[in-house]
Design brief:
Subcellular location (chain A): Membrane
Shape of chain B: globular
CATH class of chain A: Mainly Alpha
Distance between the termini of chain B: 26 Å
Number of domains of chain A: 1
Oligomer: heterodimer
Structural class of chain B: mainly alpha
Distance between the termini of chain A: 57 Å
Membrane topology (chain A): Multi-pass membrane protein
Keywords (chain A): Cytochrome c-type biogenesis, Lyase, Membrane, Transmembrane, Transmembrane helix
Helix content of chain A: over 70%
Order of helices and strands of chain A: HHHHHHH
Family (chain A): Belongs to the CcmC/CycZ/HelC family.
Mean pLDDT of chain A: 82
Radius of gyration of chain B: 18 Å
Largest sheet of chain B: none
Protein name (chain A): Cytochrome c-type biogenesis protein CcmC, putative heme lyase for CcmE
């Protein structure tokens, strides 16, 4: 079995594990006990927190891919950065939508000008800007080079967003599992939450890998298209020759 | 190192000369920002107490949105031919970046002072600890200039660059905006400002370091 076949098997295993963990996570999130105050509404925490952690990891992968691209100039790292940013934006969109629904049911408003909410929206826009930049540059090398710089800068938003709850007075709940004191969550709920968080990490890996494969195929198709129909600009220019061009 | 700073000074002086000839910031952007302050105050039609309370927020909002225009002004953009020529002369891309950012910082600080005075006069808020205002103004000016210059380099020559740069700069400038508005809040309420100053200083340093490091790859792979 060569390395490529082994990689395919590993990722097939990851896909199977992703589906299994997601199914277990869904079952656990509906069978875990309801919250004493919020009742069944608290079940939104599983999707909300699971998605946000996966989105943070995705954005960290974007920065890592960008940094590695700057160092090595390998296109695969640029594909990693782009794929993880796309998946991260989708996951973060889920976080914002679920959070807004939860906010409406608990705070009585879809949106409040709260530090965590505002910073989350801002982070979402940072990565939308990153994707807009990628779309604006047709040349693959230029695109990879310029978006790599933005990918690294954008990483700075993650700690600011996460710690905004600590730095500023916020309606949003503070750290639950990673609380500096003991965890503020009941054992069965914590188990369900950790399972969903793990499932979302596996989902992230699967989605990023699939998107990277598509990007690789897109790059190959572009190369074929340029190779067959394109022309080299230098073709129009002839090398000066002694005695004039023949 | 002397060569580096000499190049920085050359680019800075060049950008200052360009501004003297075109008056893009002093003649257009600053009056535009001042008009925005007056217009917002007029549209709100609030009483003086409400305006005084909302004043710092309005002021910083205008400074950040219009400040982005200063940072990405047309006269700061170099044509591909100019870039190529500078590269062929062996100019250090990091020095060029620092020089451009320094020029933008100078314009932004002037912009903040003038628009701040307009805000102070028209919105009527008071700041008891005046001594610390220059620190905030300088840190915001440097940070916004560094971010704008970096975004300008990332998006140069792109068809959608004009819309793209503000989309990149505005969200990334939020930590600066928060630091600046919180500092002004605590100045008004006479509480400690150190952690907000440190936040802005950190943002400035991070963006400057990334800008200097990214300048060469951005120039060499246009």
């Amino acid at each position: 079995m060569n390395q490529s076949q082994a990689t395919v098997r590993v990722f097939r295993g990851v896909d199977v594990l992703t589906v299994a963990l997601l199914l277990v996570g869904i079952v656990l999130s509906f069978t875990s006990p309801p919250d004493r105050i919020q009742g069944d509404l608290t079940r939104m925490i599983y999707l909300h927190v699971g998605s946000v952690v996966a989105a943070y990891v995705a954005f960290a992968l974007t920065a890592l891919g960008s940094l590695l691209y700057v160092i090595t100039r390998r296109a695969s790292f640029d594909r990693l950065a782009a794929a993880s940013a796309e998946v991260g934006v989708i996951l973060f969109g889920v976080v914002i939508v679920v959070g807004m629904i939860w906010g409406q049911t608990t705070w009585g408003s879809f949106w409040v000008w709260d530090a965590r909410l505002t910073m989350s929206a801002v982070m979402f826009f940072v990565y939308l800007g990153y994707l807009a930049l990628r779309r604006a540059i047709p040349n693959p090398e230029t695109r990879a080079n310029r978006s790599a710089v933005l990918g690294v800068v954008a990483l700075a938003m993650i700690p600011i967003t996460h710690f905004s709850v600590v730095w500023w007075n916020s309606l949003h709940q503070g750290a639950t599992i990673l609380s500096p004191a003991s965890p503020k969550i009941e054992g069965e709920m914590a188990f369900a939450l950790l399972t969903v968080m793990l499932a979302m990490q596996f989902l992230l890996v699967s989605l990023v890998r699939r998107r990277m494969q598509i990007a690789k195929l897109e790059d190959a198709a572009l190369e074929v298209a340029v190779g067959s129909d394109g022309f080299v600009a230098g073709d129009a220019v002839q090398i000066p020759q002694m005695g004039g061009a023949s | 190192m002397n060569g580096f700073w000499h190049q920085v000074r050359t680019v800075l002086v060049r950008d200052l000369r360009r501004e003297r000839r075109t008056a893009e910031v002093l003649g257009v952007t600053i009056p535009f920002g001042a008009t925005a302050i007056v217009l917002i105050g007029f549209v709100l039609s609030a009483n003086s107490d409400t305006l005084a309370k909302a004043g710092p927020a309005i002021l910083w909002g205008v400074i950040f949105l219009f400040g982005t225009l200063v940072a990405v002004r047309r006269t700061a953009a170099e044509t591909p031919a100019q870039r190529d020529m500078l590269a062929l002369t062996g100019a250090d891309p990091g020095a060029m970046w620092v020089g451009q950012a320094a020029a933008s910082a100078v314009f932004l600080i002037v912009f903040e002072v003038i628009v701040g005075l307009v805000g102070f006069l028209f919105l009527g808020f008071s700041v008891p600890m005046w001594w610390s205002v220059p620190i905030v103004v300088i840190l915001v000016g440097i940070g916004l200039a560094a971010l704008g210059t970096l975004a300008g380099w990332i998006a140069h020559d792109l068809e959608t660059g004009t819309a793209l740069v503000p989309l990149i700069v505005a969200p990334l400038a939020i930590p600066l905006l928060l630091g600046a508005s919180k500092t002004l809040d605590v100045l008004i309420t006479n509480r400690g400002i150190l952690r907000w100053i440190v936040l802005m200083l950190m943002v400035d340093l991070v963006v400057i370091i990334i800008g200097v490091l990214a300048a060469r790859p951005l120039q060499e792979n246009p």
